[in-house]
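Molecular record:
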Amino acid sequence: MLYQITGKIDTLGPTLTVTSKDGTRTFNRRSLVLDCTRFDPNTGEPWPNFPQFEFSGQRCFDLDLFKVGQRVVVDFALSGVKYQDKQTNEPRNFTSVRGVKIQLASSVQPAAPVEVASQAVPEANEDGEMPF
C-alpha cells in the first residue's frame, strides 16, 4: 500500500553506493528528510514532524531534480521485518520508509470531489438510547 505526504525538503542526502552482504552486488541509496511541521489550530504551537525516506536504485537520481526548501509530495511505502535479536534472543521489528515517487506539490492535481449520499440519522427511542 502506498501512502502520501506533503512537506518542505529539509535535507537531501548524498547518493551512497552500498555493497550487498555477500559482496556480489551493489545498489544506490539516498535519504530525504521532509519538514512536515503542523501547527495546533487552537494555540498556534508547532508540532514538529521530520520524517526520513530512503530512495533506492534509479529513484535516487529522481532527487537530483529537487532542492532544499521546495514543497513536494512524496509517495512512500512502509515495510516491516520481524527478526530475533542475536544478543538478547528477543523478537524485534525493523521498519523502513521507502520513497517511491516525488513531485513538486504545485504539480499534483487535487482529487476530484466525492459526492456523498445523505443518509437519514436514526432517532433515539423513548429511553434516549440509539438503535445501534
Q: What stands out?
A: The radius of gyration is 22 Å. The first helix runs from residue 59 to 62. Confidence is low (pLDDT under 50) at residues 112-122. DSSP finds one helix and eight strands in the chain.
